[in-house]
Amino acid sequence: MINLPLLCVMGPTAAGKTALAIELAESLGGELISVDSALVYRGLSIGAAQPDYPHHLIDIRDPVEPYSAAEFASDAAATIADIRARGRLPILVGGTLLYFRALLQGLDAIPATRPEVRADIEQEAARSGWPALHAQLAKVDPVLAARLHPNHSQRIGRGLEVFRMTGRPLSSWQEGNVAAAVDGDAIPLVIAPQSREVLHARIAQRFDEMLSDGFVEEVEALYQRGDLTPDLPAIRAVGYRQLWRYVAGETDLQTARDTGLAATRQLAKRQLTGLRRWPDAIWLLTGSDLGLSSVETASGGRWQGLADAVSRDMKEEQVFSRPDFSFSRQIGEILRNFLANGIY
């Protein structure tokens, strides 16, 4: 089991990652490891779409205590080793690409956050807005600024923070050669709707379901604790940040919903942009009925054989014509045969 590749179920928010990962775990004798920067925090459940199925690295940190990508890489590596020692297959699932990169590609020795510097940046943003700080970042780190939306507060703030602490652009820190936290191959499976309109509709449906399920009350409980602030990573999570303003009396619920939806769509856009750059990813593109529409990967890529196997079975309807099998279980069956044959 140790020599088998890691399975990585990736994709934008609301794409169906969890459903696919659960079926893979059931089919392949695997255990799921959450790769989600919101689900690590206790009390962030409804708005972070916490699954009912068991996952490692969920609810491991209080929201008042920030959790870093480096900590995730260390915790995930230990969890992977434990799962493999028990003869099970580790399956990583989530949409936080920074966590995936930290684990699979490694992190540079970037300086840790300095609270006083970060506080100054947050105060500037409150006065001038994040687009103005994005313009500042463009002057000192144009490479990083070109990759960021003008309202991507967390990464703009981090870029300015690192430059002010070190005099060196964050993008240059990210160019070093670093070691991954785990050894071996990883199969990146990216699930995403083929249509942006379908993805946006799923985002809106899920956000409204969260509101119906008590998302506002969940944020209210976090707000009433009294020790949490909107500059903490947990509260900056998409959806939580917007509803925090509502429970703080700074906006109305309709505006909070609309801005939360807009922020979620922006998150999905950033995720898709990052995933398109992910090496050797196998894209499982779904239609409006959530069925598999097509399979894509880089020509001659590391996992071309697996992508061809899925495409071939689709065309020949060897597995996909079985009405008692979900799309995700069908992929699991193909993966099981692929891994058992050892052709990777």
List keywords for this structure.
alpha/beta; 2 domains; seven-stranded mixed sheet; 344 residues; single chain; Histone, subunit A; globular
Taken together, the total number of domains comes to 2
The beta-strand count equals 7
Question: How does the helix and strand content classify structurally?
Answer: alpha/beta
CATH topology assignment of the largest domain: Rossmann fold
> Hey, roughly how much beta strand do the residues contain?
5-15%
Averaged pLDDT, please?
88
At the fourth level of CATH, the homologous superfamily of the largest domain is P-loop containing nucleotide triphosphate hydrolases
Query: Percentage of helical residues?
Result: 40-55%
Second-tier CATH architecture of the largest domain: 3-Layer(aba) Sandwich
Distance between the termini: 14 Å
Instruction: Characterize the quaternary organization of these chains.
Output: single chain
Task: Set down the secondary structure blueprint.
Blueprint: E1 6-10, H1 17-28, E2 30-34, E3 55-56, H2 69-85, E4 89-93, H3 97-104, H4 115-128, H5 130-140, H6 142-147, H7 153-166, H8 170-173, E5 186-193, H9 196-213, H10 215-225, H11 240-247, H12 253-276, E6 282-286, E7 292-296, H13 304-316, H14 327-340
Parallel strand pairs: 1-4, 1-5, 2-3, 2-4, 5-6
Antiparallel strand pairs: 6-7
